[in-house]
Each structure stands twice: as C-alpha cells, then as structure tokens.
Amino acid sequence: MKTPKSAREAKRPWEISADEIAAILAGSHANPFAVLGIHEAGESYAARCFIPGAEEVTALTLDGSIIGELTQLHPEGFFAGPVSLTKLQPVRYRARRGDAEWAVTDPYSFGPVLGPMDDYYVREGSHLRLFDKLGAHWIKHEGAQGIHFAVWAPNAQRVSVVGDFNNWDGRRHVMRFRAGAGIWEIFAPDVPTGVAYKFEIRGHDGVLLPLKADPFARRSELRPKTASVAAPELLQEWQDDAHLKHWSETDKRRQPISIYEVHAGSWQRRQDGSFLSWDELANSLIPYCVDMGFTHIEFLPITEHPYDPSWGYQTTGLYAPTARFGEPEGFARFVNGCHKVGIGVILDWVPAHFPTDEHGLGWFDGTALYEHEDPRKGFHPDWNTAIYNFGRTEVQSYLVNNALYWAEKFHLDGLRVDAVASMLYLDYSRNHGEWIPNEYGGNENLEAVRFLQDMNTRIYAEHPGVMTIAEESTSWPKVSQPVHEGGLGFGFKWNMGFMHDTLSYMKRDPVHRRHHHNELTFGLLYAYSENFVLPLSHDEVVHGKGSLIAKMPGDDWQKFANLRAYYAFMWGYPGKKLLFMGQEFAQWSEWSEATSLDWNLLQYRMHEGMRRLVRDLNLTYRSKPALHARDCEGDGFEWLVADDHENSVFAWLRKAPDQKPIAVITNFTPIYRENYSIRLPFDGRWREILNTDADIYGGSGKGNGGRVQAVNAGGNVSAVITLPPLATIMLEPEI
Prior knowledge:
alpha+beta
C-alpha cells in the first residue's frame, strides 16, 4: 500500500525550507539565530548546524553526552535533527568526513552576552565602558570559553566575524543584531586569543564591503597586514600607586613639567635598522630621561596605523598600541617602568580625523557612519582624511571611551590632543562655499566643542591625575579653562605663538634683532590667558625646516651659543616645557622617522655640552620653585629689562610665595658686555646658578665668577654684571 502523497511531503518538525537553507549557505539569511542552534520542535527540541565539509554530524552536550545523530539536508554541510534535551542549552557537534573527525561548539546555541542596559546606555551616549563590551573579549559564557565579538554597524544588512578560526568564511559566524543599539554580537566558543579577525559586512543594499578591522581592537597585526587580533585582557602588576597619588592630588599648573617629545620608532634603533621593542626602549629611554631631568615622555601617536611616514597621525586603530614595538603588555610594562622612577607618559591622541584606508572606519557599514556624508563637513582637504561626526552620540562615545581606555588600562598621565583648531572651525583650511555654517550661521563647530567639553569633563572626573593638552593654534578663548566657566576644559594648551615668534627672532642675524625686539616681549601680553606649554616640537624640524641648530645664524660657534641662550631663555620663561628628541644635543640633520637619531654626535664637545645644558636646565627648573610654581599665574613674573632693544637684552624675575626669586638675563648679541647695570629686588650677593656660556656647555667661559653684588643706592637696588656673548644667565640671592 502506497503512502499518501501529502504524508510523504509533510515536513518533520526540525526541517526548514530549501530557501532558508540556501540563504544560510549563501550567508544572506537575515537572522541565522532563528534557524541554527537549538530550537523547540513540537514537543521536543531540534538542532540545526552548518559545518562545511562534514558528511556526518553527532550532537552532544558540552560535557560530551550524545543527544542525537543529525541528518544531512544539504551536501555543503547543512544538518538537522531531533535531540534529546529537556531545555534550551549550548551544544557541540562531532563532525566526520572519511577518517577525519573534529569538534565544533555551536555559536548559535548560546544566548546574547550584551543586555538591555547596554543597549540603553549606548543609545543615551553615557556608556563609559564600551571598551569592555565592544571589540573582542575572551570570556566564559554559559559553560564555555571563547571570544565575544561585538561591533556597531546599525545600517548593515548582515555582519559576520571572519578569521583564522573559520577559514575567513563569512557564513560561519553571522552575528546577532541588537536593533535597539545598532550593535551586532556573537559568542564564538573555543576560539582562543591571538587569532586574527575582521568583520565581513553587507551594506544595506546587500553589497559586500571590504573586510573591516575592529574599531575597538586592542591589538592589530603588524603592517602591511591589517587584521585585528583577539587580545587577552591586559594583565599588568602595576607598581605606581605613589606616582598616581601624587598627580591626582597636586595642582599640575604649579608643578614642574618638562616634556621630552619622542617618536618611538626613530629615537633609537637596533643595529639592523629594525624597531626596538617596548622592553628595549624601557632599558634605554627611561634611564636617559631620568638622567636628563625630564618629568614626562610624550609619544607621537603609538596607536595602530598603516603608514610609517604618517608618524601615527593617521590611525586606523585607536584602541591598539601599534604592533611595531610588540604586544600591548610591553607598552604597559614601559609605562609602569616610567612611573616607578617618577616619569609620566603622555600620548599624542588624534580625534580630529581618520584615514580612508578601506579596512578602517570609512563608510564602515556602507554608510557614512563615523564621518559626515557631506565632504564639506566630513573631509579634511589638508590631510585627505575623514572628519568624525562629533554630533553623533555613538561616535562621541567611541572617542570619549577611548580617552578613558588609555587612562584606565595603561595608566597614562596625559593626552595631547592633536589638531584641535581643525576641529573647532567649520571653515578650517576651506575657501568660501566649501563649508557649511552652524545653526547660527557661524564658523564654529559646535558639535566638536561639545565633544571636547564632554571628553575633558569625563576624563578629569574619572582620572583626576590625568592632564589633557590641546594643540590649538588660534585665539579660541578659554581652551584651558573649566567647562563650567565656558571653557573647553583642557588642562593646558600649546603656546604656538611663543614657538613661532621666538623662532622667528632667533633665525635673524643678531645685528638685526634690535628691530624685532617685540617678537620676544609680545608673548608676555597673553602669557597668562591660558595654562601654556612652550613647545619646540617635531613640527619645527621636518618638511624642509631643518633642525633647531641649523636655524640659528652665524658660524658654528655662534649657532651653538644662540641655541644655548634660547633654551635657557625658554626654561626661564613662564610655561611648561616641551622639547623634541634630538634637539637636546643639537642634531644637525632634519628629523626623519626612518632612521635613528644621530647619537654619534655626543662624542663631540659642543653637542655633549648642549646635552649637559638641557639636563642642567631641567634640574634647575625642577629644583627652583620660583621657575615653575607660578608658570600659569601673572604674579610669578616681573620684567627687569624689557625695552633694551639696542643691546637685545632681556631680563625678568621669576617668583613664587616664600621662595627665593630667580633673575633670568639674556644677551642675544655676540657682544661681550661688561658693567651692565640691572635692577634687582633687594641688595646683597646673588649667586650665578646657570650660565649658558660656561665652558662645560661648550661656551667661552665668560661670566661673573659665580656671584654678583647688588647695592642699594638711595632706595634703588641694582647690580653691575657681566653679560657673556649670546648667553643667558640665571641669578639667585644667597640669603
């Protein structure tokens, strides 16, 4: 007797339509979690899986108990069948093909890791631990170990995580979509740390995009490879409690801060020209900075970037220390080593723009997600990069969380924020008609302003020991004033005017300097309008500008004398200090990121003398409160000689409450001046605590024999002193 046709064609409860199977095999199914994994099938449960290459599949519980043999529904590896379970739970499969056998734990049998509160805080923009939720994290979930992947791509039709663990097959780990937050997630059991991965994304139009690196990746492959790497959670035995306590309890404006700006890839290299690891850098750079008296090291961006000559300013991985110098743990050890000897670490941070490399953030889910769609707001003409959409809640959260991430996970002491001016102005480097005014018709980027204020507010609230420093080259008001007073909330601002004006003056032949005296006095008119850092940065020694020593006029002796006098002038001037590497020993050649500094120059007297001077300037600046305790306050400065343009002499007093004042006197001509009368605040002997013309620094040895005598004549106190040629001296009362 034949079975009726209707009975023959009736589906078994665990079967699904051929169309759905085809969609799974093509990787185009809208919701594979509704098909694969464990599901109710009538009165019992059924398992469905897609295991390419398998001919037979047995279903098991996580502890290895057999719960069913599955039926092959498609020869490409689609299986289904009933399983003997009493509740929904994770399962694994034993797959076989010929003599080969392997185990597969089913990612679709696990529930989500993220919860509704994550969705809520993401939408609200108040989630301050996104770096613990998004990206790749090795966790234990529902009885299994593996990697939880999560990525924000709200407009994608489908997102898969691909990597070495699934043969880069986008059909194997299609992610679950959390519509409320626009986040895709999946728990991939049994996947170990250290695997390379990317996201395979189909845009809203179904077009497959180039594979994307993880925006929250905490480690990346070494260029030219571009995949993200599933890193373990950072484990570092921190030994820096005293360091962090000091900076969290002190007023940084009243502390000595002298920053050594470093490009980690070219400070020093191995003999074969390859990069030093973080541990190798620690062995040489940290002791060097201790000896030189610097208080902080500021690194040019060390976040992952594809192109060496960008110096890190075009980063594709804001959360990942670049693989050029080893694993992230190496950088944590470096910071810990710095803190143990009292040196802070500042990271050059780039929230102003990002490169358009296809594996990066650009058009991440097929739409302008991190950037503006309109190039008048979303494209930087100067750098051919994209501009973050600061008005988008998720983008702002991505950046704010990144600032918090570096402070929390790596104990960083500061962030120097690059290109702030380009963020603040909608018409930055644009002609008329190439930009869109704000809602009030102005050129201020109000969204960027709110982002910077929020970032500074958050980081100072969470990490009071951290300082933020703005590279801002315009007269935007209150950059380093509190947000509640209408400021941007930065701790400090680079004094670009000081750098520009003083270098302009120093390049001139001394015979012409008397006509440009105001280039050095003008800065005191605004010196206390912000909390300033005085930078002699990498920007001044690249792109044909030459090194600092090469900018100086005159013969070699005069070049060195000019630079020594200039450095002491700067260290005596109000404001924190920053010097780019190589300039402390007067490297002749322009800086190149491709080679090590010219350390061989230290065998020569003049270069070694310059290094000794910078060291002594740092030690003097740090040990004399008058030189640093009122760096940001007007009552710490008093002119002694401001208008002697004929002799190109400048002199002032640095002061601090209950501290000995320091007189700083500079002669910017090569003329040796004897019997120069200078006013001082009180009589008695004053000790010459520093003289840039000293023989030990490579000078001519002229000076005041170590002391000068100040005399009170009718209520006017003055001293007759000797001014060495092209030199700066510092005097301190002996009382």
